[in-house]
Structures are given as C-alpha cells and as structure tokens.
Amino acid sequence: MWRNVVKRASKRPAEPDLAPTPRDRERVDGIINKISEETLLVFDLLKDGMVKEASFKTVEESITRHCILSTFEQVRADAFRDAAGLARHQARRFAEAALEMPEPQHRQFVLSVSQAFERFAKQLQLVEQKALADKERREKQD
Question: How far is CA 120 from CA 9, 72, 75, 99, 106, in A?
Fold first, then answer.
C-alpha cells in the first residue's frame, strides 16, 4: 500500500508553460513604444539645445517610468483577479464534493474548506480593487 503512495508522490508535477501570452506581448510592446517616445524626445531636446536653449523639464516626467510602473500595477491586479478566480473555482469544487460525502463530519470539513477558499477569494478581490483605486488616484494626480 505505501509503495503506491510513494510512487504517486515521486512523480514530478508538470512544469508551467512560461511562454509569453498575447497580453504579455502587448504590455512589452507598450513599454517599448514609451521608451522610443522618450528617446525621441531626448534627442529632439538635444538637437534643440545645440541650436537654442532647451529644457529637459519635460523629460523629468519620466514617461517610461510611469508606463512601466502602471504596467506592473496592472500585472499585479491581474494576478490578484486570476488567483481569486482560481480560489472561487476550488471553493465550488469543494462545495460539490461535500454533497457527495456520506458522513456529516466529512461533509462539514469539506464545506469549511470551501468557505475558506471563498473568504480568500474575497480578500484577493479587495486587494485588487484597492490596487486599481490607488492607480486611478495616482493617474488623477498626474
């Protein structure tokens, strides 16, 4: 009996696919575009500086930095949203499994696990909403 458990436990889980998703490619393209815009702006200011007085105050806004930070904020919010969705999915699976449990103690335990997953999903959703609200507040200040 224990040999079967050991054999099952020794199998390695499948490694996750780390290939970039279309959403990742879109984000990278956005960052590259912002870098290109800022580089062009700097070169224009350098060229103007050779001919006349130029100011680098517009570059101080750091277009690229803002773009990268907002991209990270969006990635973080997406991760919280995805994790909340997975937690809700697990909560549903445990709730369905509880219906098939013959003994009340087992059923109660499985339902409590389901409720824990649901609470975790709500916490993740609150963190996601707070992150998005903070992002919107910062964008209004800029």
Answer: 27, 22, 19, 22, 21
The SS3 call for residue 51 is helix
pLDDT value at residue 119: 94
Tokens of residue 74, six digits: 């969006």
| pLDDT tens column, 73-121 | 888 888 888 999 999 999 999 999 888 888 888 889 989 999 999 999 9
How is residue 57 annotated by DSSP? T
Q: Would you give the end-to-end CA distance of the chain in angstroms?
A: 65
Residue appearing with tokens 């006349």: 52
